[in-house]
Structure formats: C-alpha cells, structure tokens
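Reposting from the mailing list since nobody answered there.

I have sequence plus structure tokens for a pair of proteins and want to know whether others read the tokens the same way I do. The first protein:
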Amino acid sequence: MNIRNAPLRSKLRFVILTTCAVALFVACGALFTVQFFFFRKEFMADVKAVAQMLASRLPPSIDFDNPDRAGEILQSLAVKPHFTGALILLNDGRTFATYHTIQTGIPAQQPAQSVMLHLGGDIVCAQPVEYKGERLGTLYLDADYGTQAAKLLSLYFAIFCGVIALSAFIVLLISGKLARLVTGPLDRLASTVKKIAGSNDYSLRANKIAEDEVGAFTDSFNRMIERIQDRDAELRHEILERERAEKELQNLHIQLLDASRQAGMAEVATGVLHNVGNVLNSVNVSATLVAEKLGLQRLNNLVRTADMLREKGGDLADFFTNDPKGKLIPGYIADLSKHLVSERQEALVELELLTKNIEHIKEIVSMQQNYARLAGFVEQIQAESLIEDALRMTTGSLHRHHIEVVRDFSPCPLVSIERHKALQILVNLIRNAKHAIDEASPPAKLLTLSVRQTSPQFVTITIEDNGVGIPEENLTKIFSHGFTTRKDGHGFGLHSAALAAQQMGGKLACHSKGRGCGATFIFDLPVAAEERKEVAA
C-alpha cells in the first residue's frame, strides 16, 4: 500500500507503529549487546576458573605418574557440556592425559602463564600445572563458545520477536483509539469538504466537536467557506454581467461587420461610379461632336441648292452656262461632297468611340454585378486577374490623377478566396494609395503592384506608393475601427479590409518609413489546397 495516499488514520497508525518498533529495536539491540558482552566475559571467566581448579588437583597425579587418576579428574568436566575437551602436556611435550578431543592449533611452546586462546568458535584456556613452585606441565581446557553464543542469540531473538509482537498488539489497540480520537473530527471535516466539492453547495458547514486545535481549524474552515460563498455569489453575478456584455459585444460585432461590409461595398460602388462617370464624360463629348456634325449649315445649303435646281428643271443647261449662281453649283457640290465624306468619317469614328465607351460601361457594371452575385463563394483564381479587375474598376480615377501603374507579377499558384471580399480589399487599398499620392504630389506618381509567393501557404500582393507615408505612431492604429487621417474618411475601409482578409484565412499588414516616404500594404492570400499538395509532393 502506498502510505502517501493512505487515509490519515492509517498514516497515524503507521507512524506510531514505526516509532514504537524503532524504539523497541534500539532498546532491545542495546540490551542484548550489553548482555552478550557480559556473557562472553563471564564465559571466559568460568573457563579460566575451572581450569585453575583442575590445575590445582592434578599435581599429585602427575607427581606419582598416575595418568588414570588424572583422567578421572578430567572426567568431572562432563557435568558442564560446553567443555568439549581437555589435554595435559608435560614439560617434555608428552601427553599425560586427555578428555575427549581438543581443537588443533595448540602452540608447541607452552605459555609461561595462564592465557586464553581463540580457536575457531572455541575458547581454549592454557593453565600451567605447578607443585611447590615447580612447573609440572600445562592443562589445555577447550570450551565450545560458538554453540553457547548461538543458543544465547536464538534466545535473544525469540525474546525480541515476542516483545515486538506483544508491543505491536498493544500499540495497535492504543493507536486505534488514539487515531479515532485524533482523526475522527478530521474525517468529519473531510466528509464536509467532499460534500461541498461534489454539490458546490457553500451553505454547508462543518460541525465543531471540541475546543481544541481541530475545533479551531473547523472554525477557520467555516469562516473560509463563508467567504467562498460570498465570493461565489459575486462571481456568479460577474459571470452573468459578462455574458450579457459578451452578447451585446457580439451583436455590436455583427453590426460592425455588416457596417464594414456595406462600407466596403460602398467603396467598390464608388469606384464603379467614378469609372462610369469618367466614361460618360467621353460618351457625352462623342455625342456632342456627332450632334454638331449632324447639325452643320452645309446640309441646309444642300437643301437650298436642290430646291434651286428643281426650279430650273426645264433649263438646267442654260442655268449652268449663263447664270453666275449656276456656274458655281458644280464646284460647290464637289467641295460639299468632300466635306460630307470627311464629316461622315469623323462621325463614324466618334460613333465607334461612343460604342466602345458604352461597352466599357456595360463591362464595369457587369463585373460589379458578377462580384455581387459571388459574395460568400470561395473560388480558386489567379492573383494577377484579381488585380487587373481592381485596376479596371479604378483606372478612370488613376488616369485622371496621372498616376502611373507599374505591374511586377511573378508566376504563382492559385489562391482560394472570396472574390468579392478580395476585390473590396484591393479597391480600397488602391484608392487609399491614390489619395496618398495625390496629397504628396511627387514629380512621378507611381503605384507599384506586385505578386510573389512568399511561402508554401501564401501568395502575397504588395501595393506600394510614393505618397505621403504613414507616421510610426499610426502604424499600429490604421487597422482600428474608426481610425482615419482623412477629413472625409469614416475609418471603416482598412478595418473592414483586415477583417475580411482574416475571414478568408489571409492577413493584411502595412509598412512605412514615415512621412514623405510612401507606404507599402502587404496582402497575403491563402494558396489553394490542391496547389499546396502539389508543392508538397
């Protein structure tokens, strides 16, 4: 079980059990270490005391050379099972008597005094045997210390396990009651928190059990819930107000888009009317000239001449020969015919020009009608044809202001746009460029239109003029609704153009180095999906 994710009561029990277990382990470990130390010390003292006692009883047997008696004395070690063997060596190195077996590795040289030898898991005591100050030999007494130590450790381990088990049982009982006492109020508080979180009902309160730390915490929790309840009510009110404001803003945005669209349509329609008006001027001039040609006095003179000839119908030969007026008629008719032929040619030229101008008007109106019908329809077209349509709708105004149009087109893929919206944007940008150039009145009025593919996703149309330019502080404002620097401007044009470009998946940007340095508008149009796939392939 992951104790980090366990309930608080389990954590408390775990802490108590762990603390008690560690304390018991340390205490038992210290106690058993001390006991084991004293056991080893007492064990060695016991071995040495037995060796000294036996050594004191062995001199008569050695002196009388009685190994059997010495063996009987060594047999008394049987009462203590941990003594596993004994050996008596005389001064000359002979073995005088033995008891069972003894560990190998006894040094050849007998020690001068009593020493304790550690051989493997045994302890061997070398005790000199003396009689009246004379050394007779050495007693080697072997005790199995390892077995006794193992038995003692087993006993200690059993005691330790029993103490741990009994302590764990007692601690579980005590910790259960303590955990319920400590965590009970916290459990009830946590239950209240879950109810509040599940139902979002901030009117619920936690019950206070006692005047302790948990009780103080419960009071603080209830006060916090009261503040949350108040804040929740305020937030709900703010949300309602915000939703209402967003709804109003959405309605205003719809109205703004509609107004911007109408303003854009008005821009396009104004351009159409300007072009139609310019052509109508030419139509008016041509009609006036034709009317003047048809209303000349020469036709009236021709009628009078015909009447005169009709009166002289019976004597035309005499009239042409002898009458001064008659003599002038042939020459007059020849000259008149030449003039009529010339005037007829001039009239035909004017009529042809008049016909072309009328066709131009029909073309402009038809193109505007087509764009109006295609509003909202996305199609794939060449950016160059879109620019040419925009120029045809503004060519009259550009010619009237003597603005030279420079085309810089490079091969580009098709773009996917709403033709009407794109035309609205281009007409607006060209008209703005015309106003800027006309206001600056440079020696050479230039309007440069270029088309480039700037990325796999966009084809860029650039409209660059050498007009008055845009101050740096206005570059961030020109696309804002209602912002304009023209006295008769309404501030809808560029704002609606930027919105329309964004709606088509493109974008509109502007650059200018400042006043008198002209301006460049960058219109990015999205490349058609099929064209992107071909490039990717």
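The second protein, same order (residues first, tokens after):
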Amino acid sequence: MRIAIIAPPYPLEELPSPPLGVTYVAAAFEAAGAEVKIFDYIVCAYTKENLEKQLEAFRPDVVGATSVTMNFYKAQQILHDVKNYNPEIITMMGGPHVSFTAEDTLRHYPEIDLIVIGEGEDTIAELTPVLKQKNKWQNIRGIAYRSGDEIIITGKRDFITDIDRIPSPSRHLLPISRYRALGFPVSLITGRGCPYSCIFCLGRKMVGSKVRRRNPKLVLDEIETIIGYGFDRINIADDLFTSDKERVKEICAGIKERSLKFVWSAFARVDTVNPEVFDLMAQAGCDSVSFGVETGNPEMLKRIKKGIKLEQVYSAVNMCQQAGMIAHASFIIGLPGETKDTLRESDDFAKSTKAIYGYHFLAPFPGTTVREKIKDYDLEIITDDWNLYDANDAIVKTSALQPKDMHEFGASYYEEMEADWNKIVRKYHEGTADLEDSMRVEGHWRMKLTYQILKSGIIENNGFIEPALFKGSRDKALQELCRRVKEYTNANEKVVYDTIRDFAGRGYLAADISDKGCQWSWS
C-alpha cells in the first residue's frame, strides 16, 4: 500500500513551520505498514505538472490531504487534480475543517472519497488494511464516506487515552533543508486535550476536554530528534504546557541534563504560570512566551468563556519579563458584542501590559461554539468563503460594528506598526541603524526572499550552471547562482548573496559538479 500525504499551500504571513499534523498522519500510516511519501506544497511550488510528476514517480494507491479552514479549497483542488490524473486513486481528507463539515464536504466535493473525523491515529491503524475494500469501511469508526447517494458517518471514535503509544511525527519525510532555510520554529506538542470552553476555539472538540500528557522522556527524545535534523528553534504549541508545574520542571531539567542546545518558545495561559516555572523555562533556553488574552474588556472575557482575569495578564507578563523572556499577547477583533468602546479598551489594555502585542480578526470556524450557537450572541457571520477564514479579514459584524469599522481599527494598529518599521528601514538605507535593527531588516528581507525562492522553483529552474560559466570552480558556480537569483527576484543584492552563500555553507544547497556542468539543488 503506497500512500501520499499532501501538505497543502500555506501563506508566508501565517509563518508556516514544518507541518505537525501531516507528520503525525504520515507516522500513523507508516506504523500501519504503508509506504508513505509527503508531497509538500508549503515550501515547494504547487502546479498540476509538479503533482503529476510526483504521482507518476510514486504511483500511490491513496492520496490524503489535511487542511484547516483557510486552506481547505487548496487541499480540495489538489485532490481534484489527483482524480483527474487517475480516478482510481482513493482520496482522503482529515483535519479540523472537514471533521466538522464532513457531510457537507462529501456532498459538494465528489473528488474526496473519504473523510477521517477528529483524532485520526487509531482510525488510520484500522482503516489502512481495508482501504481497497470499501465494503469494510462501515466497520471503521471515525470516518465518513459516500455509498451511492447516501453519506455514511460511522460514529464517533473515542480519544486515545494513552497518547504515549501514538507514533512520533515522521518529520524525516519532509523536505528538511527547505524548512531549515525558511527558519521558522518546529512545532512540538507535549500533550493533547483542553478543559477550557473558549467559544472561538476548536481545542476541546478536536482533542477532548481531558488533558492527556506525554511522558517527559518521549518529549525530550523528540526534541533530540528535531535537533538532529539541524533545527535550532522549537515552539511548544500546546496551551497547557505550563499548567503541570512538576512536569515542566522535569522537562526543563531533562533539557539541561541532556545538554540540548536550542532556543524555544511556548504558549501559556496567564492563569497557569508562576515565577519558578518561568525561571526554569528561561534557564532551559526558552526566550519567549505567547499568551492569548483576546480582549481588554472583563465582560467580554466572561462572554467568550476565556476563564481569565485582566489582573492575571499583568502578573503573567511581568513574571515572564522578570525571567528574562519576551512576552507576547494576542487579541481578537470582532468578538460577540464588540463595540468601538471595547476595541478601545483592548487597545489601552494591550499597551498597558508592556508586552509585545498584536491583533487578528475573529474567524468563526466550523465546529466552534460561536458558530454553532451564533443566535445566542450579538454576532452575524457575513461569508462562508473559506479563503477569508485566515484571521486577517473582518468576516463578522455586531449590532454596533460593521466589518469596515473593524478594518479601520485593525488598519490603525497596522499603520502604526508599519510607520515604526519604515523608520527602521529608512535608517538602514541611510546607514544610521544600529546593529540590532540592521539585522532585523536584513532578516525580514531574507525571509521574504527565501519564501520566494522556495515557492517559485528558482533553484530547480535555474540551478544548472554550464561549464563555461564556472570552469570547475564551485565558488564561481555559486556566484553565478547568486547572480541568477538576484536577476529573477530583483531583491537586495547583499541579502541575495549573503542568503545563497549561507544556504550553500550550511548544506541546504548542494552542488553536483561534473564535466557536464554544476547542478545546484536542495539537499
């Protein structure tokens, strides 16, 4: 059984890291005995031609894709292209979006044969041996599929109690050098489950209300594996990492005992932290913590069932900064009952915390309480165009605010940030920026350049250097590659040359030199 897993395109603005869900799914199929490949279109260009080349080379029996709401259409289109290439290939999809829209998805998108609902590892273990025997699908809990004109949903599968038996993510199937070049942190989870009831979040519905924690030894083993791939920054993505103090101590102690050298960040709730935990995290290499605050209005905090108090935000931010770490706070525009006054309260409160803060717009994803019980709230959803569910667009309104009002508020914040950034860039061009700001500017340009290189296939299409252009010299071949990248991207020359030379020096780019020429490629 050969199974290809699609990692659908994801925009740079969303800071794409190596996809965790995709690698968990791939690991589950591998554990079930399948031969698995990941077709990654996050850091590789997607075209029908590229897809068909990969399908031709691998000849999978099954192609599966995972998606969140914002890239569902892209994932669906890729499966559509798979079916056009070979209608006999079985197509599957999983992830939070289709888990809560399974019936509607199957009715409207015939290119999708089967949906895995919710936590998928045990479902995959049972499903894999019978994927080519559709008459046996009805016996597998946790899936949805078509039988003629009927949609069959086989019932809810229980959450996995012992998550230590879940196979570790198959990151080895990813294009590692490309992700290292892009430079975003690698996400890792230390547990599953969320006991909280925030109305805008899918957490407890996707992974259950009971917290299931992984053995700290397995977490540390996974960290070692990630470092072994050459990554040096990790993000612990579960919100409840700091809630079990003894376990945090054990993991932090293990990082030091194993002499693991990496930088990391974490998410945390403001009501689950204390100075001791933050000190231990900082000593173990954590440099920043992100808190979901959502609003500066106490009544709205109650309405969205966040379960925190504003004074806890001040305390958590202060403790974080006292430990020597950066504190981030995120806020949502467009929560139920939002008014100009509540937005002003949020802005005043955000500034008063002294944290680095930012906003995103409410996206009422399928499956969230706010969407399912929309009539209970002062809120109206104005579109079901899933492309707009990226938290960068106002897609709701309240009795007091129209989308344009929300946009204006968001725009005022971003204009302020943009003005500050433009000052730094101007100083850089003038030669008056300090070292830290100069590194910020060049780092930003490098990130955008890298993403452009990855997504446009510049190396693949321009990486062959003819013998006459480098005369056997690797350095001259590299210089010619830099020249071509500069010509193609029209990016800052210094950034181009520094970036490409760094990629070659770190081994992300490899040179195959022969008497026929030099072929540069991603390692």
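Reply #1 (J.P.):
I read it the same way you do. The chain has 21 helices and 20 strands.
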